Amino acid sequence: MKNSLVIGPEALPALADFVRQRAPSRLFVLADTNTARDCYPLLAPHLPAHEQLTIAAGEEYKTLATCGQVWAWLTQHQADRHALLVCLGGGVVTDLGGFCAATYKRGVACAVLPTTLLAQVDAGVGGKTGVDFEGFKNHIGVFQEPAGVFIDPGFLATLPPAELRSGYAEIIKHALIADAAAFADLGGLDAAAVADWTPIIRHSVALKEQIVALDPHEAGPRKLLNFGHTVGHALESYLLTQAGREVRHGEAVAAGLICESWLSVQRGLLPAAELAEVQEVVGAAFGKISFITLETEAIAAYAVQDKKNRGDVINCTLLRGLGHGVFDQPITLAEVAASLQYYNSI
C-alpha cells in the first residue's frame, strides 16, 4: 500500500499527525448511526475543527441515494478538491465514503478509520470502493486508494460478538488463499474471546497487501481475494431481498468458503480431507445459514452478475490445496447450485 497505513493503538494519534501535515482546506467526518454513537467520541478529540455527517447504518443504505446525501453535504459545506473526508465505520461506510470521495469533483482525498474487524482486515484496505445497485453487491464503484488507513483495534470493543465473527471470515479467507500455516493456527480460535487482535490484523492485512501490490485493479492475482465471494455474495444478495432473513457479509462469506472449497474438491484441486479442515474451522465459528433446496437456483442466479465474470462465464476462485488459491476458474450455475445443496446437507 503506497499511502499511510498504521495498525495499533497509535492509530488515532497518527491520524492527527497526518491531518496536520496534510493541512486540508476543509475536514469532514462521515459516520453511521452506530459509529457516530460509539466511535466518534473517541476520534473527535484528535481532530481540528471539522464537519460531521451521520448516515443510516446497514447494508440496505449502501446505495446511490445515500451517496446523494453525502455529495449534497459536501457541496453545502463548500468542500473543494483540497478537502479531506475521514470515513469512520465498517465496510458500508468505508466503501460508500471512499466512492463518494473518489467521485466528488473528480476526486477528493479520503482517510479511512475502519471500526469493524471485517473492515480492518479487508474492506478498509486495498482501495476498493462502491455501493450496491439493483440488489447486487458493490455493483457500482471505482478503485481508489485512500490517502491513509488508520486501524485502531480498540474500536473492536464496541462490537457485539456476531460482528467480530463476521470479520473473522475474511481472516480465514486470507489464510486459505495465501498461508496454510496461518490457517492451521486458526483451528480452535474463539473470535469472541481474543484479547488482542492487533497481531492477527497485521498478519491478515499483510497478506492482502502483498496480493494487492501485484495487481491493484484486479486484472489477475487480486481475484484470489474473492475466494468465498462468488457463492457468498449470491447468498447475501438473495437474502437481502427476503425481509427478516438478512445475514452479515462475513456470515455469507463463511458459507461461500465451504461451498467453493467443495467445488475445489469436485475439480480435483483440493483433497477431501482438507475440505473437512475448512468445514471444521468455519463451522466452529459460524452457524449454518438457513435456506431450502428449492431456493438454491434462485440464489445461484445472482452469481451471473459477479464482477469477476467475463461474458457468460462465471469465474470463481478455488483452492489448489490449503494456502494456495487459484483464480479464473470457470463454473456453471448448476455447480453454484450444487455447492449450495452440499452446504445445506452438512
From TrEMBL:
InterPro entries on file: Dehydroquinate_synthase, DHQ_synth_AroB, DHQ_synth_fam, DHQS/DOIS_N, DHQS_C
Please list the residue ranges annotated as the 3-dehydroquinate synthase C-terminal domain.
Answer: 167-309
Q: Which residues form a coiled coil?
A: none
User: What are the residue boundaries of the 3-dehydroquinate synthase N-terminal domain, all occurrences included?
Assistant: 53-165
**What are its E.C. numbers?**
4.2.3.4
Q: Which cofactor does it need?
A: NAD(+); Co(2+)
Task: Tell me its family.
Answer: Belongs to the sugar phosphate cyclases superfamily. Dehydroquinate synthase family.
Function of this protein? Catalyzes the conversion of 3-deoxy-D-arabino-heptulosonate 7-phosphate (DAHP) to dehydroquinate (DHQ).
Q: What is this protein called?
A: 3-dehydroquinate synthase
Which gene produces this protein? aroB
